[in-house]
Amino acid sequence: MRENGKRALWWFLMMLVTVGGGAGCATAGAGPAARTLWESREQFVKIEKQDKPAQGIAPANAHPADVPVERLREMLASIEVRVADKDKTVPLFYDEELDILSDKLHAGLAAAGPDEDVAFAIIGHYPVLLGLKERMVTTGRVFCRDGRLDIIFGDVHRPVKDNEDRRLYPFLQGSRAVARQGAWALTARAGGESFAMERPDWITFPIVGSAAPAVAPAVREETGRPAVPSAVSPAKPAATARKSIEERLRTLNDLHDKKLITDEEYRTKRQEILNEL
């Protein structure tokens, strides 16, 4: 009996060590949870940790950043998408999506830290045939750095089926490490904000000035909260205009090299850009 009691005590102690050690490992490995800013069924806008690039660690973002809602809306409204089997481009986002994203991304960029991105997944209803509309999701991650706003897309106008098991068909988030490829190409809307392309799924908009605070931010008297430095500054407008034209020309050359626009479209658009000099 005494021997059986010793064995029972030994097994009890081993279970305590195993359970306690496992719980300790789980706690140590878990990072801070994402902070959800908006959620509607499968749609969301949230602040989450930066994803890692293929090599090394992502450079710190210039966060918190104050990019005005109106400027964000114009940027997002300037993005169009061309599907491989279609002749014309369509807006990447429509009004309802633009209203939600511009407001929530503004809040996210203002609240995010240097090691955080703002991720989103939003579903719109897009015309497909004879007045019919189809639910399609677009996902991405947004962050500011080096005087510009970056958007890395994951899914672009991906059809969303009813009762689709998201465990089997998860939404694909934009990734620094992995380029998302599909039967689509992103283009700039004529007359809209210009952007450059780091990859087919990664675009950057220039914003004047740095979004990163150089010193500890002052406190706003009316709210008692830290004042977030603006990501938009009127400084050096001429230099910014030249940079914008250079980026647009590089983007145009890249589209032409990839056979995404015709020779005639290339010549016409190039002349339009050069006329702005």
Order of helices and strands: HEEHEEHEEEEEEEHH
How many strands, what sense, and barrel or not for the largest sheet?
A: 8 strands, antiparallel
Q: SS-based structural class?
A: alpha+beta
Radius of gyration: 24 Å
Helix content: 25-40%
- Low-pLDDT sequence parts: 16-31, 209-243
- Tally of separate domains: 2
* Shape estimate: globular
How widely separated are the two ends? 96 Å
Average pLDDT confidence is 79
Strand content: 25-35%
Number of helices: 5
The strand count comes to: 11
Keywords:
277 residues, 8-stranded antiparallel beta sheet, alpha+beta, 11 strands, 31% helix, 5 helices, 3-stranded antiparallel beta sheet, 2 domains, single chain
Which secondary structure elements does this structure contain, and how are they paired or packed?
Layout: H1 2-29, E1 35-40, E2 43-49, H2 69-77, E3 79-83, E4 90-91, H3 95-111, E5 116-129, E6 132-145, E7 148-153, E8 158-159, E9 184-188, E10 196-199, E11 202-206, H4 237-257, H5 263-274
